[in-house]
Amino acid sequence: MLLLGVGNLLLSDDGAGVHVIRSLEALQRRGALPQSVRLYDGGTIGLSLLAQLQETDAFVAVDAMQMGAEPGTVRTFRGVEMDRQLGGTKRSAHEVALSDLIGAAHLSGCAPERRALVAIQPASTEWGLSPTEAVSAAIPVACQSVISIIEDWAHDSR
Fold first, then answer.
1. What is the arrangement of strands in the sheet containing 2-6, beginning at the earlier edge strand?
2. Quick one: pLDDT at residue 48?
3. Residue 115 carries which DSSP code?
4. What architecture is the 2-157 domain classified under in CATH?
């Protein structure tokens, strides 16, 4: 399973996905996540990550995403829901790139059947090295959403 955090750490809440991956890395070091889970800081992402998708049967992306919700809102989209969410209006370069990555995975036949997007509504994507209070508070919630997906998929595999 691949967990991919996406975002630009120089743009405040835009780096939310990377912050979540870093928190999950700390949990994995403490044994709270299976070692078989691969955590990857995708930064501002690119099609070069297609090789990562070709090597996995399950994929979770975490990203800041404009959803028209209150700042700090966390939503999970699975399977075709993820594809539909990424197919909507793009507001950041990595939303476009993540959509392109999933599209390329479908075209090449390597899109994992088990795929999900954990999205966090940003408050600000202006220059800043730290997330806003609302998004900082959402990071543990997003981590728990990712852990729930991992547990669900592990249960489905049994």
1. 38-43, 2-6, 58-64, 114-120, 74-78
2. 80
3. E
4. 3-Layer(aba) Sandwich (3.40)
